[in-house]
Structures
1.
Amino acid sequence: MIKWTKFGLGGLGLAFLIGLLLLFSGVLESKSRQPGLSGNAEQIAKARGLTPANIEAALKTYVPTGKRDEYLMFASGGHSGQVLVIGVPSMRLLKVIAVFTPEPWQGFGQGSEESAILLSSGNMTVGKQRTLNWGDTHHPALSETNGEYDGQFLFINDKANARIAVIDLRDFETKQIVKTPNLISNHGGAFVTPNTEYIISGSQYATPLPFHEYAPIEQYKEKYRGLIVFHKFDRQKGKIVAEGSFQIEVPPYWQDLCDPGKKVSEGWIFCNSFNTEMATGGIGQGKPPFEAGASQRDMDYLHVINMRKAIQIVKQGKAKKVSGVDVIPLDVAVAEEILYFVPEAKSPHGVDVAPDGNYIVISGKLDTHVTIFTFDRIMKAIKNKNYEGKDPYGVPILKYNDVVEAQLNIGLGPLHTQFDNKGYAYTSVFIESTVAKWSLGPPYHEGEKAWQLIDKIPIHYNVGHIVCAEGDTVTPDGKYCVSLNKWSIDRFNEVGPLYPQNFQLLDITGNKMKLLYDMPIGIGEPHYVQMIKADKLSPWKVYPEVGFNPATMSKDPNAAMLGKERIVRNGNKVEVWMTALRSRFNPEHIKVMEGDNVVIYITNVERARDATHGFAISGYNINLSLEPGESSTVRFTADKPGVYPFYCTEFCSALHLEMAGYLFVEPKK
Ligand code: CUK
Ligand code: CUA
């Protein structure tokens, strides 16, 4: 039994909440014996064992049917290689955007020529060609204008294969996959500059440069290198372009996350690193394993990069072409003074530039502190050439005491930091499984000190990243944060030894954080997420024209159109122009000979919202998704004689089952 009065939740507020529930639950009163589903709100709450805090959380997160969420999260889908779109505060999953992995429902990599080209464009270009069909997505980045999310594009990296994908937020589909030249893997990406001129990405595990060259581990210091990559983005084209893209060679420390400067620090890039020890592992040869070797020193180096100057240097022709890309060699980067190091706490992970652009927050995974540097101090130290010394590659190291603004003890294992609109920062604390709230800079609130720990909330468990509403912009919203937890242990129904991840929604409107909701994630291990105000997005409801090709984002001149359906044979090539409309394909019979090359151009000529058709051919491993207006192409060799039904795979109408046809493949005589 719950004694409502026992909870100190602000009597008035609570009475209001319960009143509200009672008001809406009168209709539910009945004598039915279904505990938890019958009776009034108070009875239901009692039967289900809900506390007043639970009820408050429910009221803050429940979004009734037909109503929209205030924010959308774009979450990395981790190993799934995809991107998840989730509404906040309801935490409803709205979409899985196919990015690096075939996705049959969306017809992605499942027979459509357009998606096959897209997927294979990210293949490694050296050695045996393999179509990569998975990705390890880590960091989604929304495009920005003046440091604000503009709702136009989303970028995401594939750590496993050093790729970056571009998603257009008009149709929420992947438009480009770029294999980063010279890199095997990348971790510190994708991060955008405040006007999305560049998408930044950093290597993680140093490899010989260029990556396809071989060098034994004994030559680690001489031959292995890291890279900071600047992909030039052409907003008009909606594509990453080769012209203007460049890279900077950096020492073989394992570069981790980056964050571009904003406002005062715009034009500068900050990247973490660990393994400045240059440990090379070799546990089998009696050497210290990486985990020990790479964490011997107390300090690693924050890389401070003058991006504007780097751009000039490339323009002056001082870069070297490696695999066709401009790479600023390490010695040039040193000589031209575009790279500096700042000593940072042991085994750092996240680096996060605060909304004002001046504070730069670093967290050391094996430390209990967040460390705050200021851009002002860094600039002053650089100007005065006040160095502590140089690293083995000649990179100047600034004096820690010159650039540090504050250090704050928040708990063991801080990783990533986000910001709100009230002058607070929120840091995920991995080892401790908490989120810490602390005051960013001089006090904004009565009774608080500068750089003070304000609150901590336990999470469940092992938080990696944290995201807050519009948290990477120059004007974060506050209101919600989500703790992106690696372990869920005892939070959900058990589903075998592989547990879901756990996204925990936090209410950050009050002085103390409140846990509102747990969302299990049963697909991949998401790392980072960005959260955008939903009204900044204006996606298409249907494709703008019938015959629209999402790969070119324009009407396809060759699209099949209503009344122009036909089958044309030319030698052993058979071309089919087919339309899909509730509830038929036209044509319904396709007759070809064994060995013919078949091309089907197919258009969904519908204009009604949600009237999507599928197109699957049995035995040929083909399924397309045709959204209203969309035109797509399927190309295959009819090498399996027989009779193959094709049919619509979306339950589009009452006569959906009748939306079918036959492919006849006549055997060769
Ligand atoms: S990383 Cu995964 S928790 Cu790739 Cu941003 Cu920190
Ligand atoms: Cu079209 Cu089912």
2.
Amino acid sequence: MKIIEVKNYEEMSKRAADYVVEKVRSFPGITLGLATGGTPLGLYRHLIEDHRNNLTSYQNVTTFNLDEYAGCDETDPHSYRYFMNESLFNHIDINKANTFIPRGDGEDMEREAQEYEQLIASHGGIDLQILGIGSNGHIGFNEPGTSFQSQTHIVELTDSTREANARFFDRIEDVPLKAITMGIATIMRSKEILLLVSGPNKREAFSRLMHEEVNEQFPVSVLKNHPAVTVMIDQAAGCLDYTPGSGDLEYVPHD
Ligand code: F6R
């Protein structure tokens, strides 16, 4: 796990965008795994800016998003499809037919989950997966206790996740109770992972990631078993907490 410490959210977003742009330029047919939430918004803003200024093309790029709320169709402003269209897809030259997000409004969610898993496999898997982290250590919507063997599946959201995401809704009661998410095994099959960690409310989760053993009660810890993970973290999220020499960590302090 390589940990790159940056000064603040803006610097993290810019570095993450440079990282992604470099991958897209060297492999125009790349399959990206994408996340929603507040953390990657700056990354997406920089990708759009780069697309406008430097003409990086996404015409041959395929994307798979991590998750979607149950019961939200793409016209619902709370849906992750809507979020991705507004935050990224509408502003770059990607073919929307190549952007995949699990459907939260399908009649048979279990079948949707299985088909999503097969779809990822049929595209040869994900080359680079972008991840954020929940304050309880979730990745995607894989809450504490989720099996590391899990494939794309339906989940009940925990109270802490619904509270954290209530900021995108008028009232917490409006936050869906369920979601569909890539499983931990799905995420772990990505060839490479870029984890973005920003802000004081991620401090404790990052500290746990540094100090805890890999365990299913803290889903993000599984990334320690992945051979190609880069973490970009800002100082507010607490890099100072890092202990040199722990495990296989490679630490790149900010300059
Ligand atoms: C989003 C996702 C979640 C978020 C996590 C952090 O698609 O799967 O795991 O990455 O909840 O959310 P933010 O970035 O809003 O703090």
